[in-house]
Amino acid sequence: MKTSVAYPFLICIMLIVLCACRQHRTAEMFTALPSSESGITFNNTINEAKMPGEALNEFAYMGGGVGIIDINNDGLKDIFFCGNQVSSKLYMNKGNNHFEDITQQAGVATNTWATGVSVADINNDGYEDMYVCTYGKNLSVRTANLLFINQHNNTFKEEAAAYGLADTSYSTQAVFFDYDKDGDLDMFLVNYLLNASYSANYILPKNLSGRSPANDKLYRNDGDAKGGRHPTFTDVSMAAGIKEDGYGLGVTVSDFNNDGWPDMYIANDFVSNDELWLNNKNGTFTNTLDLSTKHQSYSSMGCDAADINNDSLIDFATLDMMPEDNTRKKLTFSFMNYDRYEAERNLGYSPEFARNMLQLNNGTYTASDTIIPFFSEIGQLAGISETDWSWSVLLADFNNDGYKDIHITNGIGRDFINADFVQFNQNLGNSTSNMEEAKRLMKEKLVSLKHVALPNYLYLNNGNYTFTDISDSAGINESSISNGAAYADLDNDGDLDMVVNNINKEAFVFINHTIEKNKPLTNHSISFMLQGDSLNKDGFGAKVYVYAGGKAQVQEAFPVRGYLSSVDKKLLFGTGKNAMPDSVIVVWSNNLQQVIRQVKADSVYTLYQRNAMQPQPVTPKPANLLFTSATTAANIQYKHTDVSYYDYGNQRLLPQKFSQLGPFISTGDINKDGATDFYIGGAFNFSGQLFTQQGNGTFAAKKLTDSIKMQEDEGSILFDADGDDDLDLLVTYGDMRYADTSVYYKPRLYLNDGKGNYSFNPHAIPDAVRTIAGCITAGDYDGDGDEDIFIGGRVSKKYPLSPHSYILQNNKGIFTNVTSSVCPALQQAGMITAATWADFDNDKRPDLVIAGEYMPVRFFKNVGAKLTEVTDKSSLQNMDGMWRSLMATDIDKDGDIDFVAGNLGLNNHYHITPQYPMQLYAKDIDNNGSIDPVLFYYIKNEEGKRALFPSLSRDQLAEQVPGVKKAFLLNKDYAAATVDNLFNDKKDLQTYTCTEARSCWIENTGNGKFVMHALPIEAQFAPVNAIVCTDADGDGINDLLLAGNEYQTEVMTGRYDASYGCFLKGNKDKTFTYVPPAQSGFIINGDVKDMKMIINAKNEKMVLVAVNNDYLQVFKINVK
C-alpha cells in the first residue's frame, strides 16, 4: 500500500515540475534545441596541439560561418556550418526541427580552414549553391576557395576552378550581387592577411596600389562566354578601383544612397580602416567612408545593414571588442593613446574607436555629381556599443513588432589582450634574451588564462533609436565562444529562429516562440519569397517595402550578413498588431516595381519579377529646402586654423583638450550703416577678423590686428563700452599654454572710431583680471546706463578646480572688478561655459544666468547693487549637467524669458541619470603638487548590477599617478578599485556630480519658477555648443537650430561627432519636431563652436556657423 500511494505522488510532482519547466521555456523568446532533439552535433573544435609552430594567436579563434540553404527546394531550410580544423557540415531539415547530417553523401566535406559561406544560385538553375572561403591549410598554406554547385539530387560538385573563382587569398567571406546591373550576379571577395612579417597594428602607410596581399577582389560575371553552360568570372578589381589593404572580416551590400545601385561596406580588423564602396554606376567604386561617416570601429568584426528606425534609409552596424562589465574593461589592454591617435591621423587613417558602432543614415547630400549618404554614429545612445569580443551582428525583427532588433555573438579562445598577460610579455621581453624560452613561457601564461566564453546578446528595438538588452531573459545567453550566426524561419511558423556556430561547443539552434501553434498571436508577420529572372533567379538586390499601421518597413534581398554567414533568403516582416498590411511594393534590381494590395499577415507570398511592369518612380529632390548654403554668395571666406598644442603635458587625465575651444562670433553694426556685421575670433597666432556687410548683402573682411598673437580668442562681444554710440569690441582669451595668471589671458578692449576701425585700449581692463575664458556677456546690472560685463572662467590649469570669473563694472569704458562685493559666489563659480543677462522675473532689472560643467543652470537675481543666487528656488531638480551653451529667449511667446540649454547629450557611455550619476573626484593623490582628477561612472559589476567604478584603466591612471601600480600590482586587483580604494584619505577631496546630460528648454512659469523640457532625442546625439532661436519657417512659432560636437575628447572616450546640425520645428503645444538634415538642408560638417543669426541687406535671415579648425559656414533661411 505504501508503494501504491508513493508512485502517484511522485508522478504528480514530476508533472508539476515538467509543467513549470514548459511554462518557463515558453516564457523565454527562444529555446535552445538540444542536439538529441535537433540532430545537429556540429562542434567547431579547435585543437591547439595541431597548430603549426607558434601559431597560437587570435587568428585561430575567428571561427566559422553559418549558411541557410534549401538544397532540394522543399521549403524547409537546411543548414551548412563552416569548420576550421574540422570538416564543414551540411544538415538537411527533415521537418519538426529535426536535421540529418548529409555532409559525406552530399560531397561537401572540407579539409581546409573554412571561414565564410555565401549561398546563392550561381548558375541560375533554380537550385542554391554554396561558395566557401578558406584561410588555407591550418592558417599557413594557401588553398583555393570552394564552390559547391548543387546537382539537384542532394549532392554538390566542387567547381570553383571551372567558374574562375578558385581564388587562393586568405579569404573571409564572399558576397554575390549585380554590381554592374547587367542582370547577373557578380562576386566581391573579402580577404585577410595571415603570416605577415609585421604586426597587424603597426602604423604603416596605406597600401592603395591594389597589390596588397590582403586586397579584396571584385569578380565580374561574364556569363557562359566560354561555352561551359555556366557563368565564368573575371577579376576586375583594379579596373573597378578596389584598391585597399584591410584585414577584411565583414561585408554587407546595400543601396546606402538610394540611387538604385548596390554599394558595399567592408569591416576591417586592426588599424586598417573600413571602406564604404559607393557604386559609381559605371563599373567602378569610390570609397566614401570619410565623406559619409565621422568615425568607425577600431578592430571591426562583423557588420550588417538594415533600416532600424523605419525611415526607409539603410543604417548599419559594426562590432569591436569593448567589454560591458567593469572587470573585463579593466582587464582589457589598449595600446591607444594621444600620440598613437595623432600618428594614425598623420598617415591618413580615419578616426576609429574600440567599440561597436551603429551608423544612422541621415539621407544624402550631393558632392559634385555624386550622391553621398551621411551617417550619425549613435551606438552609445542606442545602448549597444559594448558587448565584449564580438563577431556577428544581425539586424532583424525577432519579436515581430515591426522594428529591427539586434543579435550579437561573443567570445574568444584565449584572452590575447588581457592587460596582465600583455604586461607579463613586456616584463618577459625585458628579463630574458632566450627567445625560445620566452615563447614557451608566454604560451604557458596564455593557456593559463583559459578560454573567454561569454554570453551572446539580444537587444530589442524600442522604436526610438534605443535598444533594451533582454539577453538574460531571452534564452540565448549561454556562455560560449560564438562566431558566425544566421537567422531563418526553420519551422515555417512566421518568426525568425537563430543558428550559431560555436568553437569547442555544439552549435546553437534557437527556436523562436514569438509565434506558436495554439497560442494567441501577439504580433503578426508576413513573408516573401522572390522569383527573379533567368540570370538572377532569387531576385538578389530587390527591395521590398511593407506599409502597415502608418509604418513603412524595407528589406533588401542580400542574404550575406553579420559574420561569415548567409541568412534565410525569405524576407520576413513583423507587422505588430496589424493583421492586414496596407500595401507591399517590391522594386527589383532592374528598377521595375510592382504594388501589391489586399495582402494578409501570417502568410507567405511569392513575388515574381515578370509581374513588375512599371518603372520605379524617381524620388523627387526637395523642391525648396528651408536652408541653403550661402557662404560663397555672401563672399565670406574665413578658415579657423588651430595650432596644435599638447594639453596633456601638465595633466594626463584631462577629459579633453581645452586649447581648441574656438572660434566664437559676435554680431552688431560696427560702422553705423544700419547693416549687421560680425567679428569671428582667431586661433593662436591668427588674428580674428571683422566682416563688414556691404550694400548688396556681401561682406568685406579685415583683420583685427596685424601684430603677433600668442593666444586663442575665446568669447567676444560687440557693445558700446565708452558711451560714444558705437560698438566697441571686448575679446577674451584662452587655451592651455600658460599659467592661469598669464597676461595672455587678460581680456582686451578695442575701441571703435565710429567707422568700424578698432584700436586697443590697454587701460580698460584691470591688470589682475586674467582667466581662461569660457564666455562673456554684457548687461547693465547697476542701472547706470552703460553695460557691465560678466566673464565666465572656462577651466583652470589645475583641472577641475574652479577658474576665476568676473563681474566688471563699466565706468565710461574703464572697468572695475566688483565680483567680491556684488556676488562673491561668482568669483570661483566653477567651469563656466555659457552665461546671459536676462530679466527672468520681469522686475525690469537684468539678472544673470550661468551654466557650466558639473553644475545646474544657475540663477542669480538682481537685487539692486548685488546679485543673489536663487537657483534653489527655481523648482528645477537634478539639473547638475555638463552644460555647454545657453540662450535666453521667449520660446513660447508668453511675455517672459525662457532658456534653451545645450548639454553633453546622451550619445556617450556614461548613461547618466539621477540614479546613476557621473562623478568626478579630484585631489593630489601622490602629494606631488598636481591635482589628479578621476572620473567615475556606473558600470556593470560581475553580478550584472551597475556600480560606481573609475573610468580609467590602471595604465591610464598610472601615467599621472605612477604609485597606482604599487598599490595595485595587477590589473585584476585594480578591477575591484572603488572611490574608497583610490581616495582612502578624503581630506581636500573635491567631488563633482552630473545627473543630467540632456539638452533642454527651460520654461519660465513665473515667480522665479521653471520647468525643464528635454528636447527630442535627435537633439541628444551630440553635445550642443550653439543655439539659434527664430521662426525659421514663418508659421509664427519659434523654432530651434542646434549645432555642436566635440572632437577634442581624450582618445579612449572618442570624439563626439554625430551632429550635422539639428533643426527642431516648433509646435503649438510647446513641443518640437525634429526635421532630418537632408530634408531641411541644414547640414553642417565639423566641430561647431558657435552660431549666430543675422539679417542681411536683402532682409534675409542668415545663419553663421563657426567651426573649429575649419571654414566658417553660412546658411540662408528660405522663409516661405
TrEMBL record:
It comes from the Bacteria. This is RNA-binding protein. Keywords: Signal. PANTHER family: CARTILAGE ACIDIC PROTEIN 1. Residues 539-606 form the ASPIC/UnbV domain. SUPFAM superfamilies: Integrin alpha N-terminal domain. The keyword Thylakoid does not apply. Pfam families: FG-GAP_3, UnbV_ASPIC. It comes from Ilyomonas limi. Residues 1-22 form the signal peptide.
